[in-house]
Amino acid sequence: MGKDLSQFIRNEAFLDKVVSAEEAASWIEDGMNLGMSGFTLFGEPKEFPIALSKRGEQEDFKINLYTGASLGPTADQSMAEAGIVNLRVPYQGNAVMRGKINKGEIYYIDQHLSHTAEEVRKETLGKINYAIIEAAAITEDGYIIPTGSVGNSPIFVEKAENVIIEINTTAPSAYEGLHDIYVQKEQGERREIPIYNASDRIGEIGIKVDAEKVKGIILSEQPDVPSPLFEPNEETQQIANHLLDFFASEVAAGSLPQSLAPLQSGVGSVANAVLNGMASSQFKDIEVFSEVLQDGVFDLIDAGIVKFAAGTAFSLSKKRVDSLAEDLEKYKDKIMFRPQEISNNPEVIRRLGVISFNTAIEVDIYGNVNSTHINGTKIMNGIGGSGDFARNARITIFVTSSLAKDGAISTIVPFVSHIDHTEHDVDVIVTEQGYADLRGLPPVKRAEKLIEIAHPKYRPQLRAYFEEAKEKVGGQTPHILEKAFSFHTNLKEKGTMLMEEEVTN
Amino acid sequence: MGKDLSQFIRNEAFLDKVVSAEEAASWIEDGMNLGMSGFTLFGEPKEFPIALSKRGEQEDFKINLYTGASLGPTADQSMAEAGIVNLRVPYQGNAVMRGKINKGEIYYIDQHLSHTAEEVRKETLGKINYAIIEAAAITEDGYIIPTGSVGNSPIFVEKAENVIIEINTTAPSAYEGLHDIYVQKEQGERREIPIYNASDRIGEIGIKVDAEKVKGIILSEQPDVPSPLFEPNEETQQIANHLLDFFASEVAAGSLPQSLAPLQSGVGSVANAVLNGMASSQFKDIEVFSEVLQDGVFDLIDAGIVKFAAGTAFSLSKKRVDSLAEDLEKYKDKIMFRPQEISNNPEVIRRLGVISFNTAIEVDIYGNVNSTHINGTKIMNGIGGSGDFARNARITIFVTSSLAKDGAISTIVPFVSHIDHTEHDVDVIVTEQGYADLRGLPPVKRAEKLIEIAHPKYRPQLRAYFEEAKEKVGGQTPHILEKAFSFHTNLKEKGTMLMEEEVTN
After folding, report:
1. Chain A residues with CB inside 8 Å of B346's CB?
2. Among A214, A286, A247, which residue's Cα sits nearest to residue A9?
3. B115 contacts in chain A (CB < 8 Å)
4. Is the overall model pTM greater than 0.80, yes or no?
5. What tens digit of pLDDT does each residue of B48-76 get?
6. Catalytic residue numbers of B?
7. Which residues constitute the catalytic centre (chains A, B) (predicted)?
8. Architecture of domain A12-220 in this structure
9. Closest approach of chain A CAs to the CA of B197, in angstroms?
10. Which residues make up the CATH 3.40.1080.10 domain(s) of chain A?
């Protein structure tokens, strides 16, 4: 490799463990449970999954794959293509893997991201046989320094029978000190999570590992795959503006200070547009207590709007990846990554009173949210941390464009085809048409507000459904079950959710 | 009243505040927000709501009513009958009130019971104008001693502009010492909830109140209304047996100790059958960390099975009400009531690793649960605390008979008509046919297990739906949306969910 290994492996007990990725991959047996580092394309092992996938092209075996969240082309995609994944837990976002899941070729458990560590503790799927963890270094004290995500790596390392470390020699050395690794004890034996501000450091800078358990160390020079850069367009800008208006009205009403409250934002174009919009806003000294930190967070720190940002992983575009080593030095007192069990923990989210905003696929007239399934059947990515935050936040916001598929789909429908977040957990919905503040409203009044932020061309048929349901059936939550999915079935039959009457009008 | 008032009102600053219920009721103005004590028929004020209802028969006004949970005939029913309730939050269980809610005459927000205190803090519906709290006594130090429930009383007293105390002179004096009153600060300013065992006492024995804020004290001699006694029948006994078998198998597998884990059980016939069944079980030294404590808990303490029980309210049958004064003395070191924000708090439930079991109205083949709505439209009671526990529990169990309405309804359906608990939060479903352990299973494997615990006469049509959905649509969660509610529409059209083919077979 041409590099001085002792710079990366600083504890002698680990030095003789270096093996090829192929050798490490050869240890994996059919039916094993693997726990891999990686979250939103950052911090995943690269050489190992490629070697395992290559082996899979020759041999017949399947593994169950746990991760933090979505892995990239070298991991989720190559393993899906090689046909070596039996079961995937708790989140994915890769097109190839998604396709195989939806064909029934890969089983998938779509799980709250804060729950996975508990399931590993309980051995719901048996023991983790191998943890495979990307690292920037192994310290003198035998700590694994993670790279661009923490995810579930600490619990994988603690519970796995064997550990494989993939040292990425291209990882910025400034990753060391970025992480705050805190692992809870078993339920019933643990204490509180002592976080009272997003910036409270409660753990250690790396993952303690028993050298005995480390079966091999792989060396890698493969960088993380940057995430797409989500530039705002007119529509996402409108959504962002409405959301910023909502925040401003809360501040004006005295319900929130100018520092708002610790902020969680989902990943994607709307989230990025909101972060962009904040750069020229009145808000200041904001704490971010989130899952994923995107490009915008760095900009907001520069602008003095964000004073601290905690999460469990980066999701950065190429531009930010290129300057990462420099940025990590610059922002090292303002950024922190914790295990996803902590970044997404109900205890902390509720204590801090986080404001949460995430993207919805569809929303029904009573405020139930589908975050995962297209037409109730095909999974997109997964619920991720949206439920961890939505249930426990001070204000729970979901954002979506009112239309999808060039207007063939209204994202506001009578009855969502899959429910990830129930009406009990949803406070505010934002589309490019405006925002619906549902707080303190019973279902029938929620519907009035939600129909108003549907796209104008769909409002008449939403109104017609709602009025007919109130008139003919009534009840706390008026529905006509035989028509509840009429938008969806119309889409299937006619290629659009727009009913014939409206089309011909 | 013939009783020595100073025995109940032991602080002089309060002694001159005694007024008639009629006078107190006269203070209430149209549009006010009232926060009343009371939870599952226990600990509600009685004289005040009756007086307010009487006033409502003469005058035109409406109030918004917050409580802990369901109130009884003197409160929810009399106020609903008088037509003085505009909005009801967060739970009800009275037939008259339910009827008016479903007719759209009363607005109702069906809320997670741990969330209501946060909504009061945030003033989502504005300030609480009056808190009306039933008390056993006011102490020398000016603490209100609650009666048979704590519910949301502490936050109502803290945040209300005015407080009315209804002293119930028939309440056992042994209520004093039963309660553990701990109120959290605002989000962002609070610390952890320092409960590490169900029995940890963290608060005070009463609710501190500023005498200045107490506008009046009413005297009452009306006892609580006992709850129906839920005697096990053959079916509830079968469900209970399956659940006990599940617990036994977890113990046998080493996943749980003989003390299980802190136990939460819903209210009703199955819960009571389970508690009865436990009395002759192998389990011992169980801690109960629940919302409502029913008759069975006393029996299990007697049998040495339960060593401590914490909740927020009693729900007791007449037999136990009659011996309550004596029982409170006898069990005072083994029972504790906390505010529902604490008894149901995600932080504590998850830390302790509570086992939760609650009743479902219907369950779909993928494990989504409807706890609240009949045919997706008419509300029954409300979600109550089931979501607080289900989301955060170590094992989340829902129980239901596989049939309802003399077999016209299958409680296992293709798609639930309303979702309160999503597949992400549901581990085990129990019917009289057996239990389905869904842990670690993807949706299509969950369906296989769930169809097996449906009633045999509905299994063929559930199987037919599932196979057709897999075949024709596929995906992570196969559904045929146009037939997803076919069971429900068949019921509406033909009076039974059983399809014609099966009937004629």
Report:
1. 346-347, 350, 391-392
2. A214
3. 424
4. yes
5. 999 999 999 999 999 999 999 999 988 99
6. 291
7. 291 (5-glutamyl coenzyme a thioester intermediate)
8. 3-Layer(aba) Sandwich (3.40)
9. 8
10. 12-220, 234-494
